Amino acid sequence: MENQGHGTVGGMAHVTKKEIVKQIAERANLTQLQTKEIVQWTFDAIVETLVTEGRIELRNFGVFEVKRRKPRRARNPRTNEPVEVEAKNVVTFQPGKIMEERVRQMKTSSEPKRKPRKNSRASESDEGEDHEEVVVGAGAPMNGTAGANHTLVDGTTGAPLKPR
């Protein structure tokens, strides 16, 4: 999608849902209101599948998966006091090969300006994994879906992808 002069984050174009809706509406010859509903239904379906199944595979795009983070001890950066962080569910995203390749070949005028984290949450088990974390409500059920078939975006089920 083109950067149409909108805001940037770290030197990269910052695109909102509203801008995505506008572009899809123009391409699909739909009103922005119709398109906004469809886009929201899509997001809702992804979230609902994550809550009920724990995983959703969008072929040629990537895989979203709910993972459980163990409780841990951390430090309050303001007071330097130790604090207990409860176990929580997080959403991980593993990009598909096509997305990964396109992003790898992307030409940027400058590197994103990102401050390194002072307290990295990466554990030994996360090293080498390429994913972003987004917190999901701690009460989201996991349903023990390890090794089970998972719902695909077209409504069919399929076996989990093997790690690359």
TrEMBL record:
<keyword id="KW-0238">DNA-binding</keyword>
<dbReference type="InterPro" id="IPR000119">
    <property type="entry name" value="Hist_DNA-bd"/>
</dbReference>
<dbReference type="Pfam" id="PF00216">
    <property type="entry name" value="Bac_DNA_binding"/>
</dbReference>
<protein>
    <submittedName>
        <fullName>DNA-binding protein</fullName>
    </submittedName>
</protein>
<comment type="similarity">
    <text>Belongs to the bacterial histone-like protein family.</text>
</comment>
<dbReference type="GO" id="GO:0003677">
    <property type="term" value="F:DNA binding"/>
</dbReference>
<feature type="region of interest" description="Disordered">
    <location>
        <begin position="96"/>
        <end position="164"/>
    </location>
</feature>
<dbReference type="GO" id="GO:0005829">
    <property type="term" value="C:cytosol"/>
</dbReference>
<dbReference type="GO" id="GO:0030527">
    <property type="term" value="F:structural constituent of chromatin"/>
</dbReference>
<dbReference type="InterPro" id="IPR010992">
    <property type="entry name" value="IHF-like_DNA-bd_dom_sf"/>
</dbReference>
